[in-house]
């Protein structure tokens, strides 16, 4: 595990996972037990799951495909943030959900429910400050239609401290830059309101942006936008490397028949002109993206970017930081992505309950299915937690 | 819940892009689902939408009574229940599905917004172009049900009736638009499906089309289990919630379930050997095909065994067990589809590709 990969993932080591019981809103407390507690040093991937019959969970698997944690959720979860010490994880509800759960990774027990503030809902992504003391979540002030970054005190029961403007509409994924002070936020640009379900209210006028802001003051540092003819490209998911370049995966809200770039790099830290570099792949590969990227991540060596396209049933790989298209594999309904410990390798999860390991640097390497969680599907995102050395 | 944990080589192909071609039976099933399942239902929906618009205009002009308006609503709902399970394609453009049928309304958006709109009496709101962009909760059939079946008789006021008329025109427009996009012109969705194995413009192959319908089948059953039956039944050990039943005001909650199951059953049974059961048999899965057909029959029998209205049945100790039995049957059916039929047909339910984030 390289230092840069640690910086990229902002995760530390982790302790063993034990059983945990949930109270209150959770449906089936009896199932909230860890399945296979193993050595504390093992690396793990975390992700939200759903049951083919019913139920939702936060699950963690180790590199051998053993389930380490299985924690029931009150509804669909989205992404998981792990604090830099590796002691706790927070899983956030999928939009427009209003819950997040903090999980103590030493015991595997539910530590606390975190509720959305009045008039706010979560968008599904969160990040901890470098010292683990603060939790930042993307949120919607849905009456005003403004994006917010909720700030909570992770040292005091995740008490709500206030919020920052996201300087855009529909903030989705967020990350911290290497200075530990600058947040980078993907403002998808799409306005929604819980009274209208998941309906998108402003597709004609949407203005997505990639924003950098000071986490202390909320002050806007820089905003990158797309050329006006690409304004229906929603900037949703990001990954940041050690040099603060940002990988950007987008979703096109226009016609399915449009063919537009779906992946971009913000290389402004290299002294570029500040525009997003829009990346292209061969036409058949772009068409198979079905105008949709589910998630993006960089490998632990920061030489390969992976982008998932669940609607097209493929995952694509690109050179990093050059952004040249490299290869693709078929992964039906594959969406979750996380770097594996070894450079060039990725964890991929899909709607068939499969956890797949793929080496994107080896020529014609076949992806390996490491585990099949029968009866469950993996939801959109995976998060990697490095093992303790 | 079983967990297979082994370093198995993935069943994932490093296929070249495009070029994949489905087998003949799959291509035939895709064509049948488009031409014989979707298109006739969208045609019926467009016709009932047009009739609804005409009937509501006549009612507000004093040329037709309330009974005629309600009857037109019932026919439109019948047509909708037969096709609401299809959530991809033209009905997905322009938020048409939600605009036609904003449901379930878990935050009671309609109950909050409709009285406000009726009180404001904004004539501009009812202009077709404006109305099509107003809150989805106000635009479609659930709002019309409140107007036509509420005890407060909102359509007795001129604005209330004009509101109902605006919904009728909107439903007619949307349903006509969906039909046109499926049926007409070079870019017709049905044509794209027919070309699925020759062009990769919209689909990789016709198997992708079949998988979309298969996902619709599963999702509609899951929604019936959790929402149409589960919500009115209430939490386990809790009290029944009759007013959470779909369409309870017009007393058609059970009819909705019956029509939906009829429509889904046809996708499975496929008269003429076209359905998902026949596809199972072609793969040598005769036993599973029989189990699937039996599970469908059990669900339909379960619906037939309930004495309507559903909203009363959930709260009646004598009739409630029949509703619970129906929910169990529907749950068993979608469980069978997800856990056994899906892998047997290699048609994967797209949990991540259905509604992204």
Number of structural domains of chain A: 1
Low-pLDDT segments of chain A: 1-39
Q: Quickly count the helices of chain A.
A: 2
Calculate the terminal CA-CA distance of chain A, rounded to whole Å: 9 Å
**Which CATH C-level class of the largest domain in chain B is it?**
Mainly Alpha
CATH level-four homologous superfamily name of the largest domain in chain B: M75 peptidase, HXXE motif
- Main sheet strand line-up of chain A: 3-2-1-28
As a percent range, the share of helical residues of chain A equals under 10%
Explain this structure.
The complex is a heterodimer of chains A (389) and B (357). Chain A has 389 residues and is mostly beta strands. Chain A is built from 2 helices and 28 strands. Chain A has helices at residues 3-9, 283-288; strands spanning 44-51, 56-62, 67-73, 77-82, 88-93, 99-104, 110-115, 120-128, 134-141, 146-153, 159-165, 171-176, 182-187, 209-214, 220-224, 233-240, 246-252, 263-266, 276-279, 295-298, 304-309, 314-319, 325-330, 334-339, 345-350, 354-359, 368-373, 376-385. In chain A, the strands form 7 sheets. A 4-stranded antiparallel beta sheet of chain A has the order 3-2-1-28, with no helix packed on it. A 4-stranded antiparallel beta sheet of chain A has the order 4-5-6-7, with no helix packed on it. The longest helix of chain A has 7 residues, at 3-9. The radius of gyration of chain A is 19 Å and the shape is globular. Chain A starts with a helix and ends with a strand. The model of chain A is unreliable at 1-39 (pLDDT under 50). Chain B has 2 domains: 37-194, Up-down Bundle (A middle domain of Talin 1), CATH 1.20.1420; 206-345. Chain B is built from 15 helices and 1 strand; from the N terminus they run βααααααααααααααα. The model of chain B is unreliable at 1-19 (pLDDT under 50). The chains are: A mainly beta (389), B mainly alpha (357). At the A-B interface, helix 2, strand 23, strand 24, strand 27 and strand 28 of A face strand 1, helix 4 and helix 15 of B.
């Amino acid at each position: 595990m390289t230092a840069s990969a640690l910086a990229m993932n902002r995760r530390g080591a982790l302790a063993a996972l034990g059983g945990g019981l949930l109270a209150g809103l959770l449906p089936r407390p009896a199932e909230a037990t860890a399945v296979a507690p193993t050595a504390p040093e093992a690396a793990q991937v975390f992700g939200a799951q759903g049951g083919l019959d019913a139920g939702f969970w936060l699950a963690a698997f180790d590199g051998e495909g053993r389930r380490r944690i299985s924690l029931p959720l009150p509804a669909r979860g989205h992404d998981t943030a792990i604090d830099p010490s590796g002691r706790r994880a927070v899983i956030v509800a999928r939009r427009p959900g209003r819950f997040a759960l903090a999980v103590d990774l030493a015991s595997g027990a539910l530590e606390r429910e975190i509720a959305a503030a009045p008039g706010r809902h979560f968008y599904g992504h969160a990040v901890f400050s470098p010292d683990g003391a603060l939790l930042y979540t993307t949120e919607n002030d849905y009456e005003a239609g403004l994006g917010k970054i909720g700030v909570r005190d992770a040292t005091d029961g995740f008490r709500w401290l206030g919020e920052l403007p996201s300087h855009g509409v529909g903030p989705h994924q967020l990350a911290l830059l290497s200075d530990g002070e600058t947040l980078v936020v993907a403002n998808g640009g799409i306005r929604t309101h819980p009274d209208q379900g998941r309906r998108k209210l402003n597709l004609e006028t949407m203005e997505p942006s990639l924003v950098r802001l000071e986490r202390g003051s909320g002050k806007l540092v820089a905003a990158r936008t797309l050329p006006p003819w690409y304004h229906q490209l929603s900037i949703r998911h990001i990954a940041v490397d050690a040099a603060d370049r940002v990988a950007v995966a987008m979703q096109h809200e226009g016609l399915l028949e449009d063919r537009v770039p779906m992946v971009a790099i913000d290389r402004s830290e290299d002294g570029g002109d500040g525009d997003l570099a829009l990346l292209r792949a061969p036409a058949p590969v772009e068409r198979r993206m079905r105008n949709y990227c589910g998630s993006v991540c960089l490998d632990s060596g920061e030489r390969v970017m992976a982008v998932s396209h669940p609607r097209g049933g493929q995952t694509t790989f690109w050179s990093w930081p050059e952004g040249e298209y490299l290869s693709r594999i078929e992964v039906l309904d594959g969406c979750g992505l996380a770097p594996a410990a070894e450079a060039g390798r990725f964890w991929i999860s899909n709607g068939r309950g499969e956890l797949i390991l793929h080496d994107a640097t080896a020529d014609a390497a076949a992806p390996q299915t490491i585990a099949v969680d029968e009866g469950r599907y993996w939801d959109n995102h995976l998060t990697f937690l490095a093992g303790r050395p | 819940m079983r967990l297979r944990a082994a370093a198995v080589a993935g069943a994932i192909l490093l296929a070249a892009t495009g070029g994949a071609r489905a087998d003949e039976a799959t291509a035939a099933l895709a064509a049948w689902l488009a031409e014989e399942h979707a298109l006739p239902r969208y045609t019926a929906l467009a016709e009932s939408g047009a009739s609804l618009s005409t009937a509501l205009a006549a009612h507000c002009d004093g040329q037709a009574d309330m009974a005629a308006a309600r009857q037109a609503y019932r026919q439109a709902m019948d047509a909708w229940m037969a096709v609401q399970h299809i959530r991809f394609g033209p009905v997905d453009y322009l938020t048409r599905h939600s605009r036609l049928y904003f449901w379930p309304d878990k935050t009671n958006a309609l109950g909050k917004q409709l009285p406000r709109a009726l009180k404001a009496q904004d004539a501009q709101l009812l202009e077709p172009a404006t109305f099509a962009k107003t809150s989805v909760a106000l635009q479609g059939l659930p709002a019309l049900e409140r107007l036509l079946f509420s005890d407060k008789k909102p359509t007795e006021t001129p604005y209330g009736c004009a509101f109902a008329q605006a919904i009728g025109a909107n439903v007619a427009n949307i349903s006509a638009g969906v039909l046109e996009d499926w049926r007409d012109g070079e870019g017709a969705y049905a044509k794209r499906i027919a070309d699925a194995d020759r062009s990769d413009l919209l689909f990789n192959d016709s198997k992708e089309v079949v998988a979309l319908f298969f996902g619709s089948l599963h999702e509609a059953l899951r929604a019936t289990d959790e929402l149409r039956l589960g919500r009115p039944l209430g939490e386990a050990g809790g009290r029944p919630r009759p007013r959470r039943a779909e369409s309870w005001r017009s007393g058609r909650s059970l009819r909705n379930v019956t029509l939906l199951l009829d429509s889904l059953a046809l996708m499975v049974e496929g008269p003429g050997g076209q359905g998902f059961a026949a596809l199972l048999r072609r793969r040598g899965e005769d036993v599973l095909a029989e189990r699937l057909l039996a599970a469908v029959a059990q669900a339909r029998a379960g619906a037939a065994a309930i004495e309507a209205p559903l909203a009363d049945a959930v709260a009646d100790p004598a009739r409630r067990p029949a509703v619970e039995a129906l929910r169990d049957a529907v749950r068993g059916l979608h469980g069978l589809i997800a856990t056994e039929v899906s892998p047997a047909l290699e048609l994967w339910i797209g949990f991540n590709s259905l509604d992204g984030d």
